[in-house]
Design a protein that fits this description.
This protein is α/β, with parallel strands linked by helices. It has helices at 12-24, 35-45, 61-70, 88-96, 109-121, and strands at residues 4-8, 28-32, 49-53, 78-83, 101-104.
Length: 137
């Protein structure tokens, strides 16, 4: 069964590129054009990884990441933040919100896929205290 990747990106050309890359790498994908749509898809799609733009309409990527980390049923979901902001403080804010990794745009497609693969291959899940690891059907 293919790992599931939710792509939350509001720029159509970047979204299409990310979808192509993730599908070519063998992942099942769903797309969200804003933070609210991403939050609605999370409990339905149950992604293993979220590629999350930090600057999304309606709800920021930071807010979405915090919501993911607050939901015990999503405790094993990895978050890879994408942003045009490359400052140290922006990086810190993404990691403080609970992101597992952080990539600055423009990014190398090979690097992005390698980081996604590394996150998905890591057997150590980020679990909230008392959370039960997700069992895929």
């Amino acid at each position: 069964m293919a790992k599931r990747v939710l792509i939350a990106e509001d720029e159509p050309s970047i979204l299409a590129s990310l979808e192509f890359l993730m599908r070519r790498a063998g992942y099942e994908t769903r797309n969200a054009a804003d933070g609210e749509e991403a939050l609605q898809l999370l409990p339905v799609f149950r992604p293993h990884l979220v590629l999350l733009d930090i600057m999304l309409p309606r709800r920021s990527g930071l807010d979405v990441c915090r919501e993911i980390r607050a939901d015990a049923s999503l405790s094993g979901t990895r978050v890879l933040m994408l942003t045009a902001k490359g400052g140290n403080r922006d990086h810190e804010r993404g990691l403080e919100a609970g992101a597992d990794d952080y990539v600055t745009k423009p990014f190398s497609t090979q690097d992005l896929v390698a980081r996604a693969q590394a996150l998905l291959a890591d057997p150590v899940l980020r679990l909230a205290p008392g959370a039960i690891p997700r069992q895929d059907p």
